[in-house]
Amino acid sequence: NRFASFIIPFLSVFLCIPALTFGQAMQAEAWSGSSGELGYSLEHRSLSDSLPNRPTSGLKINGSFLFGAGGDKLSVGETTEGDEITICTGGGFGMAASLGYNFFSRADLEVSAGFRVNWNRPECDNGDWTFSRVPLLATARYWIPTKNNAFVKLGGGAGYYTNVKYEMDVDLGGSHQEETIEYDNAPGFHVVGEYEIIGPAKPFSFTLGVRYSFVTYTANAAYSQGTTYSVNDIRSDFRELKGGGFHFYFGFGYYF
Which residue positions in the chain have pLDDT lower than 70? Predict the structure, then answer.
């Protein structure tokens, strides 16, 4: 199963982090007064002071897994049962690593690099179609505190989508066929909404988010069986593709 082989190595690394992140509860500090009686200290605290493990300023690293839908839906073949085989050019599955800087728990700037891929639906025993790309994203977010160490984050940014490629690998009656279409690197932009929980005792965090992206890809080269073709010789619906769409993601981070 292509989905299982894609996600299992990623999850094996990150699913151990929540046990470290959320395993300890906050404790009240006891004090001994001048009379020797045990009591609890009472003092006024600002919002920032009341969240002792809330990051102030500094770096954060994050790893995330994402899935989504969108873009163009291309017809690439037909099964022996007569079902249409399609592939989408937006959304898909992916993973990303990011580095960010947090400004006093009010806003952050983040850069990330990742990999996204779409596969044909339905799956076929004798063929694979993929649409892949490597996005480089820069995102700014504004933080809205909710309760304890949780935040809603809203923002947006720009992206540069590289190594964009459509590939086909099919066996038909003993005949092996391969085809590749490459696309120009493309700029794009996106908006995001996130909910992040920062662990009570350690600087780990867990994030759930949604991103909507806007990007268009233009074909620049085509290859089939080792032969180079003009872009004008490929199907017209493959020459310019809409690659935007929704992505839902979750990730684990660490604040320094």
Answer: 1-56, 201-202
What's the confidence (pLDDT) of residue 107? 93
Question: Which candidate, 62, 187, 168, 188, places its Cα nearest to that of 114?
Answer: 62
- One-letter amino acid for residue 53 of the chain: N
Residues 242, 244: Cα–Cα separation, whole Å: 6
Angle (nearest 5°) at CA 36 between 35 and 40: 95
Distances (CA, A) of 208 to 32, 46, 195: 43, 27, 5
Residue with tokens 């809409």: 242
pLDDT at 83: 92
Report which residue type is found at 74.
L
Query: Global pTM?
Result: 0.79
> How is the chain classified by DSSP, letter by letter?
-HHHHHHHHHHHHHTTHHHHHSS----PPEEE-TTS-EEE------TTTT-TTS--EEEEEEEEEEEEEEEEEEEEEE-TTSPEEEEEEEEEEEEEEEEEEEETTTEEEEEEEEEEEEE-BS-BTTEEEEEEEEEEEEEEEEEEE-STTEEEEEEEEEEEEEEEEEEEEEEETTEEEEEEEEE--EEEEEEEEEEEEE-SSSSEEEEEEEEEEEEEEEEEEEEETTEEE-GGGS-GGGTEEE--EEEEEEEEEEE-
Are 239 and 227 in contact, with CB atoms under 8 Å apart? no
Residues listed for the chain: 256
